[in-house]
Automatic annotation (TrEMBL), chains A, B:
Entry-linked Pfam families: BcrAD_BadFG
Highest classification ranks of the organism: Eukaryota, Viridiplantae, Streptophyta, Embryophyta, Tracheophyta
Protein name: N-acetyl-D-glucosamine kinase
E.C. number(s) listed in UniProt: 2.7.1.59
A GO MF label: N-acetylglucosamine kinase activity
Length: 347, 347
């Protein structure tokens, strides 16, 4: 969080030229960071001078509904401004990077809403949360592909000349089977199928019942539909990974299927944008973000995904970002803001 | 509706010995029929003297929540009694056969609730809706297996000595992929995958967009999550069947997968209950119920399911019921009621 010496209070920094907000709105939680609008270009994402950081719940409108999502976004921005000892009047630019924003009409509704919250001359950018995640891995440069696999999953790519493409990110009803939700729902299904005679026995039964403090697979049905939150289902992923690491066949098949889904998702974007060049061998950044892709486990999901993609596109250059997507969002807003004031060409 | 001559008004019939209610509570709608408690054993399901029939919306607690489900059940019973020119005081027995009732605790909560609505000496039976569907095909005899595939799917079996088993019926999150919801969700997923480069092109894209009056596959995401009703998704099944009949490969694969899922579901129950006898060749009734299994289409889903099951269990005896499941539920309540009064041994 370096860049400012002890004597500078956040309030005085914010006062110099206002602030920038970057919001990463996900299905599990929503993070907002506040940067000084007048900061110089940071040498690395880790050197970005963050004035404040606030966290709230789910802001995916497809999961909790539009009004709850907007309330959460408003809350998290208000909290960040308050932590930074400033208020809405100091805001110069905001980038809302929110999961579930899939169509120009979603974007427009959110722009109309956010304009009423801040000063008239502030600038606003509404993007899918994938854009912030890509920026967090590429030092703010919009080029390459990002794969996010947390509660949901999406691949999003941008070419150097600004063409974009995405795959998946359509939620659990529409086939995001590589996501945390997808992995967990398939594990719950495997328990039900083993119980009613349709599927093979699996150690997932014991480990999931223990985790959920239930006594029989029949009770899983009531548990599943008692609360429609996707994040609650996706929280079972570590149980599936453990079972797979312990050699359970069913859990291993679920993870292998999920690896293939995630790899297919990235490859669809890479192909459509020709990120791999005409000969299919150009180097391109692949930013990997989200709980499902975090490493340090024996069963290495992101390693397997990269292995699968690299067989087809040997130029795949994997990046695990050093900073969180909310900082990527803030850097995008900051860079747009600087361009708007014509201080220099975009970084 | 036969059995009573014109001169007998429903009120006078009901007055003789009270009435019986049978309720078939599904995810798409809920049907209640009212029978005279003192009727003689009917010669065939079609000869059952129905005093009244009322229809309401979804009463699956997993889909609309418990309080909305109970409100719907109360409404449909009140309407049926009103149509029969009688009231709650005339009720002698009720069978609630409701989808989403999966556990003794669900059953108990519903029994506690219904007892407060009717006279103290009335009898109440709460079952999964599959039980009523089975009874509607077997003339009230609880023996064999029923496969329901409407919005949801379930197989439920009973042996002659009263053992029961079920498979599936766990809703869309937990792998009911042979259901109407499952077929339609896979078709929507196929459209998304064809659009974003993960799947092959399909005529489902044009036909689903036309049906939903949308202009692009991206808009399907917003449409899907705008309303969580499962029945709304399942209503797309006829579009999938048409595309398959017109030779679309993707639609054909979805229907073939669904046939296999439904056949596996039935076979799991038949195996667990040994409905096919020790040698696997005994005859057993297989009652087929629900929109997905209704015939008269070129692409005959129920015919394919039976073909698939008969290869393994040649004694499969398919029955398409002549009456609706609500009458099955009423016949069960009537038969229990008669037993309770010791008029004769159960039919």
């Amino acid at each position: 969080m370096g860049g400012y010496e002890n004597g500078d209070s956040p309030a005085s920094v914010a006062g110099e030229g206002g602030v920038i907000l970057g919001v990463d709105g996900g299905t599990t939680n929503t993070v907002c960071v506040c940067l000084p609008a007048a900061m110089p270009p940071p040498e690395s994402p880790a050197a970005v001078p963050v004035l404040a950081r606030a966290v709230a719940g789910c802001s995916n409108r497809n999961s909790v509904g539009e009004s709850a999502a907007l309330e959460t976004l408003k809350l998290v921005m208000t909290q960040a401004l308050s932590i930074a000892n400033t208020d809405r009047s100091a805001v110069r630019a905001v980038c809302l990077a929110v999961s579930g924003v899939n169509h120009p009409s979603d974007q427009q509704r959110m722009l109309d809403w956010i304009r009423d919250l801040f000063p008239e001359n502030a600038k606003f950018y509404v993007e899918n949360d994938a854009v912030a995640a890509l920026a967090s891995g590429t030092m703010g440069k919009l080029h390459g592909c990002v794969l996010i696999a947390g509660t949901g999953s999406i691949a999003y790519g941008v070419t150097e000349d600004g063409k974009v493409a995405r795959a998946a990110g359509a939620g659990p009803v529409l086939g995001d089977w590589g996501s945390g939700y997808g992995i967990a729902a398939q594990a719950l299904t495997a328990v039900i199928k083993a119980h009613d005679g349709r599927g093979q026995q699996t150690s997932l039964t014991g480990s999931i019942l223990e985790k959920l403090e239930l006594s029989s697979p029949d009770e899983i049905i009531g548990w599943t539909y008692a609360d429609p939150s996707w994040a609650r289902i996706a929280a079972l992923v570590p149980v599936v990974v453990s079972s797979a690491e312990d050699g359970d066949e069913v859990a291993n098949k679920i993870l292998h299927d999920s690896v293939q889904e995630l790899a297919d998702t990235v490859m669809a974007v890479v192909r459509r944008l020709r990120l791999c060049g005409e000969d299919g061998k150009d180097k391109f950044p692949l930013v990997l973000v989200g709980g499902v892709l975090e490493g340090n486990k024996k069963w290495d999901i992101s390693g397997e995904v990269i292995k699968c993609i690299s067989k087809v596109f040997p130029g795949t250059d994997p990046i695990w970002p050093e900073v969180e997507p909310a900082i990527g969002a803030a850097l995008l807003a900051w860079s747009h803001h600087r361009k708007g004031f014509k201080w220099e060409n975009g970084s």
